[in-house]
Amino acid sequence: MFLLLSLCIGVGAIAQDHNEEPYLVKNLNGADIRSVLVQTSGGSISVDGGSQTAKVEVYVHGNNPWNISKDEIKERMEKYYDLQISGENHELKAIAKNKEAHWFNNHSLNISFKIYVPSKVTTDLTTSGGSIHIANLDGDQRFVTSGGSLHVDHILGKIKGNTSGGSIHVSNSKPEIEMETSGGSIEAENCEGHIRLTTSGGSLNLNHLRGNIQAETSGGSIRGGDVSGELNTATSGGSISLTDMACSLKASTSGGSVNVQMKKLGNFLRVYADGGHADVELPAGEHADLNVQANRVSTSNLEHFAGEQTKEKIVGKLNGGGAEVTVRASSGHANIKID
To answer: Is the pLDDT of residue 276 over 60?
Structure first.
């Protein structure tokens, strides 16, 4: 169940069209795979669960230039790379690395792996620049790329992923998600549990989430809807637009405006728009302690309210008081609508 290649592989193992067909296919029949370890430089990694048996497909492309002949690929692989594929001790290993410590700039290749395994496996995946896709897995997942995107779908377990610049998409997963990018956008949908999402500059799109959620960006916008549980989200410069919310919510921006539409109040609602306006819609009949302050405050359908109301603030109890509702728009206006 072990294959170590300096890659003196016959012509039959080399794809006739390396843009579509795998360079090499290795079936690990009979291996009881419970974990997956993948390491490559520059190529992408894909792990898909649900297969009865384990299989590894290897795809190789030129880096400079991208489109080179299969003979040139074979020559470079034999001379400059080691490829290891094994399925021993319940672990699938797929590792591609340079034979020498330094990088062969003029002869470098992108070596990608597509891996098919049973659902109940853990992963540890690393690539220096390609994207990572994982789907249909039950177990803890850890994956890192230095620049590619991350795609996660139908994962049950602890998820921890990091990219130094690519985008993130996570869907249909639970119960613990922690993902970070140094600059790309993040999209999360239909996920549940403890969720932590961070980007240093891209936008956030959050939809159909349940649980304890923290999502932050250092500069992009934030959009989302249908969130329950607790959401703490912030941006250092973009706008925020959240609809159909039924959660405890803290939403803050240092530069843009905030638009929040609540379907149901949680324990608190805290909205901070330091550089723009704040529009907040509350459902009729909710009990709340209002504390709204801005350059100018306006209201719509504010009934059954007892307290202080001026052009710059509203402080008092709605329907006898209840959930904490705090709204701040330090340099803009705030509009509170009851609907």
So the answer is: yes
* Cβ contacts of 69 within 8 Å, gap of 6 or more: none
Q: What is the pTM of this model?
A: 0.90
Strand bridging mode 168-171 / 186-199: parallel
Angle, CA 325 vertex, CA 196 and CA 216 arms, to 5°: 20
Q: Quick: pLDDT tens for 68-120.
A: 888 888 888 888 899 999 999 999 999 999 887 655 566 788 999 999 999 99
Segments making up each domain of the chain, as ranges? 1-166
Over the range 209-220, which residues count as b (16 or more CB within 10 Å of their CB) and which as e?
bbbebbbbbbbb
- Do residues 243 and 264 make contact, with C-beta atoms less than 8 angstroms apart? no
Contacts of 331 (CB under 8 A, 6+ apart): 274, 275, 276, 295
79: Cβ contacts below 8 Å, ≥ 6 apart: 99, 107
Q: Quick: pLDDT tens for 220-231.
A: 999 999 999 999
Place of tokens 């509203």: 314
- The DSSP element (H or E) to which 301 belongs, if any, is none
Q: Quick one: pLDDT at residue 108?
A: 83
Q: How far apart are CA 248 and CA 230, in angstroms?
A: 5
In three-state secondary structure terms, 73 is helix
CA distance 3 to 300: 71
Residue 311 has pLDDT above 70, yes or no: yes
